[in-house]
């Protein structure tokens, strides 16, 4: 893509320190948000899901290191994606992600959303259903972006486009250099 | 019409495996061979598979149509004679395959759409083919001798990606549905002059999100549409006989909306010869609806007859009733499989 930089001066936030995974993962109680941040995707504020800790779910780490298409910092560092924005219902096999693009008119929002979708497809069992939305009020044409990101046929067709696929792959796989 | 008494269920007859990616669409051959016919399926693996019931009674893959499309094959449709199969692909082309014995040969490639072709449909006589694409257009092609196809019209009107086109069961009336939430009816004025005679649902009774599919009943006086807005809508053209100009294009009106039955996108809907409406949705379930015989209500209404949860492990993309055996249903899924079902009474 030959677009100019849309967000030339992003605000960068310090990365949250990763807590080493605790061995004691068999609690049946509702979990403290901080504890689960590094173990499993946390719950949305108003809904509480019971999570089965004995299953091998890939966690929030798998998405927060995705590189923003325009900058070398990860999505978490740019506050595009924060803890509150992921909800996983393991029993139903549903994931709901809400992300905040860095600028209101971000045309990269659809690419970021695509990256999130691809990463989640790669990280979770295939029967999981993923809904991806931009957080309300974060984007001028958020309805249009949400509709596109959740149209399975449009997503499939987009990912068959070699240059778009290449961009998505670059965002997903070049995060190792910047995860310090 | 043969009616079954008692509680009904969809009994799984067989699971057809072979595709290596999601299966998007199915089409039963209208003539076919054997008792129940021939089924075509198309997939994200860029191939089309033909399935037939073998001597043992089980369905086997009798042909794989490959090395033609370079991207997902999204939709397929048999000509009324059953001799030709049209396949629509994300590669922007529509291929025409001719059946010669058990083999299939690609005899034509229709080009012209600017991007992914989403759907293809033959008219009742097999003289016309319609295709639609993400380029927001609907193309009408005329079948000519020697497997030649000529584009006779490019229909503009949709403001977004067109998801499906379907010809009326016996009139040269075309309906298209799409991402712009609309349902459009197209007819010809004579001399290849096609235009949109009606856009359904503009007055508030229409869908509020992408319309994915439509299906006519066998009488051709009703159609059902399904949408991302989680509803099915039934439309009717027999209420104002004075307004119909005899070509079926006049005054389709909203009859009823089936809401509250689905909680995820409905990708496919198909109306059987016996009047049963099957739906396939993103919650992995298949549902059957029928007209309610409730005499208390003046307006025709529809009710859910069967709900088959976990019909597949993933989204159901297509449901198609067999054209000769009306109790046989085929379904296709993101899980890469196709299932054959039989509507039967629940054994007590």
From TrEMBL, chain A:
It comes from the Eukaryota. InterPro entries: FSCA_dom_sf, MIP18. GO terms for biological process: protein maturation. SUPFAM superfamilies: Fe-S cluster assembly (FSCA) domain-like. Belongs to the MIP18 family. This is MIP18 family-like domain-containing protein. It comes from Musa troglodytarum.
TrEMBL record, chain B:
The keyword Repeat applies. InterPro entries: CIAO1/Cia1, WD40/YVTN_repeat-like_dom_sf, WD40_PAC1, WD40_repeat_CS, WD40_repeat_dom_sf, WD40_rpt. SMART domains: WD40. The keyword Repeat applies. GO terms for biological process: iron-sulfur cluster assembly. Keywords: Repeat, WD repeat. It comes from the Eukaryota. WD repeats lie at residues 16-52, 66-98, 110-151, 155-186, 204-245, 309-348. Gene3D superfamilies: YVTN repeat-like/Quinoprotein amine dehydrogenase (2.130.10.10). GO terms for cellular component: cytosolic [4Fe-4S] assembly targeting complex. Belongs to the WD repeat CIA1 family. Essential component of the cytosolic iron-sulfur (Fe/S) protein assembly machinery. Required for the maturation of extramitochondrial Fe/S proteins. This is Probable cytosolic iron-sulfur protein assembly protein CIAO1 homolog. It comes from Musa troglodytarum.
